[in-house]
Amino acid sequence: MKGITNNGQGIGEELRRLRTGAGLTITQLAERCHYSVGHVSNVENGVKPATDDFARACDEALGTGGALVALVWEGAGRTRHRSTPAPSQLPPSARLVGRGEVFAELGRASEQLVRGESTGVLALDGPAGVGKTALAVSWAHHIRTQFPDGALFYDLRGWAANEDPAASSEVLEAFLRDLGVAPADLPPALDRRAALLRTRLAGTRTLIVLDNASTTEQVRPLLPGIAGCLVIVTSRRRLSGLAMREGAHLVSLGPLTAKESLSLLRDTFGEQRVARESEAAERIAALCAYLPLAIRVAAERVAAHPHLSLHELADELSAVDKRLDALSHEDEAVRAVFSWSYRALSDGAARLFRFLGLHAGASFSEHVAAALCGVPVDEARRTLGELAAVRLIEQVGHDRYGQHDLLGAYSMERARLEESEGDRESASLRMLDWYLHAAAQANDALAPQYRNPSLNRPTPGTPAPPAFTYTTALAWCDTELGNLVAATRLAHQRGHHTHAWQLPIVLWNFLSLRKHWAEWISTHEAGLAAARAGGDSFGEAWILNNLAHAHRERRRFDLAENELTAALALRRTLCDLTGEAWTLTGLGYLEGDRDDHDAAAKAFAESADVFRQVDDHPGEAVAVNGLGEAHRRLGRFTEALTCFEHALRIMRNAGDRYSEGYTLTKLGATFDAMDRHEDALAQFELALVARREIGDRWGEAETLIARGDAVGRCAPSGARASWVAALAILDELDDPRAADVRDRLGMVPVPRSAVSVTPSASTP
Fold it and tell me: What is the reported pTM?
């Protein structure tokens, strides 16, 4: 492969050789890799360069194990395609005591699997509390340097106490976004997402840890199927199906040996104490069934009471009542240790521990703990410290805590046994109120110019949300999204219909910005069911409107039309003029996506009139901007200019720099279509100022592309500077649309003076 360059005939000749060797025509290959016949032909004939994504798609279609990607990288002088840091998602590794034999087995198996012809899969199984996750994470850290293209991690929630297992489609969306796939490019179907993951990982050495799997079927779509990658799976079940079809190496993990258990106890509260009371230490280890989780909890309990003898503590543990009928023998031993630590808690800590069983989500903040108990945040913080000290919760980050799924189940059990139904209900409502009002305040910080539905006052005892800036609001939503999804489901399941439809509504600004499709659709579907169950037509209409935008952007136009039509009918029945205007705006976008720009113009004009009636100027600006784009697409440039200029006046008065940058770009494109090239360039410059001012990197790239297109119509070589600068940004963001810019650049000769120049992302 030496000497082959991406810009020459080499990669095209190799693609033709591999295609004909596989017995495929150009048409058949194009269908398999989802590129046009013309694009494949142009690459084979050296007319267009092969991009990373194109090479991956062909490698996937031809089963070449990343050979074409390697050629692209070699031609570009790279070792891997990512310009942003590779994902590094492994949780911190706890100190591992014992397990030397298992570590050796994992070493032998990993070496054999990575040398194989397909993805290596290590599947660790064992009972609850045996330390599967700790072992998997420790081993992953041990071999991390062998996988330079990144490490992905996901908790599949197979055995979570109060959450459903993660859907394979949800995990694929998360992984693909982490690997740089833009939200708009995520396919909706599970099989296509799985295929895209295989494509993105072709030719890479990537490590994937899938923790807490429930079934083989949950795991199988998440496997890369590419040689050189390694997947580590943990489960309470033995996943024999992975061994039969994927050649996985299965490792069953049992309890520690008595010797290893004593080493773990020594590691926590010292060699001398164990040596003085070795018999009692052995009893404690045996009563913990030699399970690492139980031993660690017991050891922390012992360490917290240095004045007590180990004999006294062993006697106390032996006397614990084991009343957990639904659990296996091993789980009973673990729960006995939990009970031992739980009964030693202060009243406040025990109450918080019980109420934590009501929380659905992977982690929680001190504000949520305060809401559950109805106490000040400072008091909740101190109580969380008490729980963390005895390992009944773990601190997983600044102001964030988590709980093992077994501990979550035990918390739920204690809440059912010791808290009245009314107290449990009040705690749940305070938690839901916290998430609802905090999400509303965060989304107001993201787009303060838009109106949200009025919320009821929170339940007494609910902490006040923090004061958000744009940056902190975005970070909060990113962190809490999983909890907000779980809270929406919880509200729906428990019959809190208003919370269930309002939670996704107040998340609208974030969801539409970040394009988390699975969460967007699932929360709104739960909210729709809740609104209908509660007979709330106002909430139903709002949910239908927002759900339609998700389906429209996923190109499911018929479904979006049905939802918008239903929302419009409801809003007109309710005389909800603001809602009616937003639904008409949605219909305008839908018709524009269908290329019926006359119908789009009609819908946008009607929505703008209604917005004026209710004196909603930001909404009017959005509708008028849409009308201008419809006029531009219809060639009505004078009307388009009038609309864009009107929308700009409103946006500037509202301080909406994000929308202003977008509109200025469209205004520039209109001037360009009218052959007013100097005016077009002036608008593009203003758009760049606005977008750079607010850190809108993708918007900056969009404007640079449009400016390059405008310049290129008169002087193709003059477009290079804009396109190269846009490409630098898109590469920085790892955005697949960089391929479109490379296609543009591939059609323009490289000036001799520019061969060795690498412009910065902000090059004008």
Answer: 0.66
